[in-house]
Amino acid sequence: MNEIIVVIDSLAPSFCYYNSKKNSNYEILEFKKFSKYVDIVVENGYNLTICHGAILPCEYEEKIMNLKTLTRIVPNSLFDRYYNNSNVVLSLSVDEIFEVDKKLVSYDLQRCVILRYSSANISQISNSVFQLLRVTKRICLFCEDSFLENKDELNMYKSELEKISHVLNNEKQIGKLTEINVITDPWFCETSQYCLAGNESITIMFNSKAYICPAFFYDDANNYINLDDIQYINELQILCSEEKQFACLECKNIQCKRCKFISKKKTEELNIPPYELCAQSMLEYNISQLLK
Ligand code: SF4
User: Residue 143: which of 288, 279, 1, 290 has the closest Cα?
Assistant: First the structure.
């Protein structure tokens, strides 16, 4: 393991294939526990990723002030506080795209923006992406419903990606190509971008329990990992390693995340992807091949 992700409060935005399902009760990880996790990060030389949706109390900020290996994921509502920091990732929904201050986002042209959509707003994907072209280095598109359920949704998604790929072709020709995980990763990444949650990273949620990733918590808070059970942790790490993703090793689809949460949800196995995941990933792969 080399990364600890801490979702500090209940207002934190999602950053992968899940919906953070905010409820009105604001909860925050106890400072004593947060402090302990930061100490573990420092002692072991891990990377720390924090994700929060409300302004952090001073003691939390002081605790991480000198950390060199920190990534912070925040919603648009907090972005103006952190935009001049290069390790900050903005997570926003396509519904919020016109609230974004593009000047602030482009302050650091190496930035990554997480762009979330759901089955209800698939038709907004391409226009939202166009708003962010040349404003950010990389856009990571994630479906908050985890995966698209039916043919109509997939067709709508395909049409949105086709629109994006046409524009990207022009951008590419003039050397202005913005990375978009589901389309351009075969062009920019030499190896697969598969998920290694549970193997290389572990997530601590604001209830101070550990999970493979936040998706498991939001699905069922009882899915936690007992951090005191070293044998179980070791077994989980092996199970979540690339070698165990045997069902996918022959697949040429480099940009598929091989999401363990979706696999577990649909097939009861962390490493057996369901039809829905493969269908969406293959669609993305085929679109990526339209880039000349
Ligand atoms: S299992 Fe991996 S890809 Fe799936 S939601 Fe969790 S972190 Fe993201």
Answer: 279
Tally of structural domains, the chain: 1
* Closest ligand 1 atom number to CA of residue 257: 3
Task: Please tell me the predicted confidence (pLDDT) of residue 190.
Answer: 76
Is 38 a domain residue?
yes
pTM over 0.85: yes
Q: Which residues of the chain have pLDDT under 50?
A: none
* Spatial separation of the C-alpha atoms in residues 141 and 167, rounded to whole Å: 16
Exposure of 82 in the CB half-sphere (CA atoms within 13 A) = 25
Is residue 71 one of the residues assigned to a domain?
A: yes
For tokens 């101070």, the residue is: 208
Ligand 1 centroid–CA 195 distance in Å is 6
C-beta of residue 253 within 8 angstroms of C-beta of residue 282: yes
pLDDT tens digits for range 109-166: 899 999 999 999 999 999 999 999 999 999 999 999 988 989 999 999 999 999 999 9
Question: Is the CB–ligand 1 distance for residue 260 below 6 Å?
Answer: yes
269 CA to centre of ligand 1 in angstroms: 14
Q: Tell me the residue range of the domain where 223 lies.
A: 1-82+195-244
| Digit-coded pLDDT (tens) for 76-88 | 999 999 999 989 9
17 lines ligand 1 (CB under 6 A): yes
- Asked, for residue 180, whether it belongs to a domain, the answer is no
d(CA 240, CA 260): 8
Residue 263, in any domain of the structure: no
197 lines ligand 1 (CB under 6 A): yes
Contact residues for 283 (Cβ-Cβ < 8 A; gap 6+):
154, 157, 158, 161
